[in-house]
Amino acid sequence: MALEIWRRELGLVGKMLALDSRNFHGWGYRMKVISQLERLSTEMNSPNVSMTETEFTYTTKMIESNLSNFSAWHRRSKLIPKLLEERKANHTERRDLLDKELELIQRALWADPDSKDQSLWFYHQYLIGNFETEPPQDSIVPGLLIEDRLTYLKAQIEDLKDMLDGAETCKWIYQRLIDLALMSKSLNDRWAADASDVASWIDNLAELDPLRKGRWDDLKSHFNHSILK
């Protein structure tokens, strides 16, 4: 009886999100419903307890229908560690998933490079976190070699530099280029882009984001000091 009630609730919240796909209250309730369904399935010794795979597929569907769905991107980031654990994914399979997710977010960013929508950039930030000097504990690819991280960073920088053409007023591109350059510097003490490019990105960012001009001026000062060493 209880299982059937929660199944009906899942259908109900699915209809609600079909009408308002970005409603974060709906996404929050869907997570509660999924949790209850998994709990009851466990108690009933069901052979298919986890709904991680189906929920991951659901986020893909919702993202494809609306790229600006912050809740769907956020939910996806929370499902990936559990998904990899349940799949017992090895290093190659984890890298394959990372590559596919980078391809997905890059397609989304290229769909509207000049967009001010932050949801895509937040998910991109989640993915490039795998290339940090100290990646998060739930990294998609633990133990990624430094040379591999540098290769990923360089590819991301080149892609975003291309994206700037026609989207010169999008501050998020400049900010992410700087993030990537700083990551590369922290990994091998070298800039992954020409010094003139990095300086130009900081200047453009300061102009586009005047409320944080002091922050960007400080970054420019640290950058100038670093290249003089």
Instruction: List the uncertain runs.
Output: none
Annotation field: number of helices:
10
| End-to-end gap | 70 Å
Percent of residues in helices comes to over 70%
User: From N to C, what is the helix and strand string?
Assistant: HHHHHHHHHH
Q: Could you tell me the number of beta strands?
A: 0
Estimated share of beta-strand residues: under 5%
Average pLDDT number: 92
Q: What gyration radius follows from the Cα positions, in whole Å?
A: 21 Å
Helical/strand content category: mainly alpha
Profile the largest sheet. none
Q: Shape from CA axes? A: elongated
Protein model, in words:
The protein has 229 residues and is mainly alpha-helical. It is built from 10 helices and no strands. 25% of the residues are buried. The model has no long low-confidence stretch (mean pLDDT 92).
Topology of helices and strands:
Elements: H1 2-19, H2 24-43, H3 52-65, H4 70-87, H5 91-111, H6 118-128, H7 146-163, H8 171-188, H9 195-208, H10 213-228
Helix pairs in contact: 1-2, 3-4, 4-6, 5-6, 7-8, 8-9, 9-10
A few lines on this structure:
The protein is an all-alpha fold and 229 residues long.
Main attributes of the structure:
229 residues; mainly alpha; 10 helices; elongated
